[in-house]
Design brief:
95 residues; alpha+beta; Alpha-Beta Plaits; 4-stranded antiparallel β-sheet; two-stranded antiparallel ribbon; 24% helix; elongated
Length: 95
């Protein structure tokens, strides 16, 4: 699996912005990626030292779509909570 396929995007909410003050960052990752892949990718991309990685799988919701409001299943998402030992990740870099 390529490095660009492992981490899909950072998750930015009120909860995650409060966790980032404690050096815990959240990312949406590929469902086939494991904890070692996520840690290695973050260390190479952001030049930080990863302490721990906790992953969860968030089940997809059932949404009603279309003219007849047919229920459709959204895909599952895998979320990684990454705790850093050294360094920080700048989610909003200055241009």
């Amino acid at each position: 699996m390529k490095i660009t396929e492992i981490i899909l995007k950072p998750i930015i909410t009120e909860k995650t912005s409060q966790l980032s003050q404690k050096k815990v960052y959240t990312f949406e990752v590929n469902t086939k990626a494991d904890k070692d892949n996520v840690a290695g990718t973050l260390e190479t991309l952001f030049k930080v030292k990863v302490g721990s990685v906790k992953t969860i799988i968030r089940k997809g919701k059932i949404k009603r779509v279309g003219r007849k409001l047919i229920p459709k299943q959204r895909p599952d998402k895998k979320i990684a909570y990454v705790t850093l030992l050294e360094g920080t990740i700048d989610l909003f870099p200055q241009a």
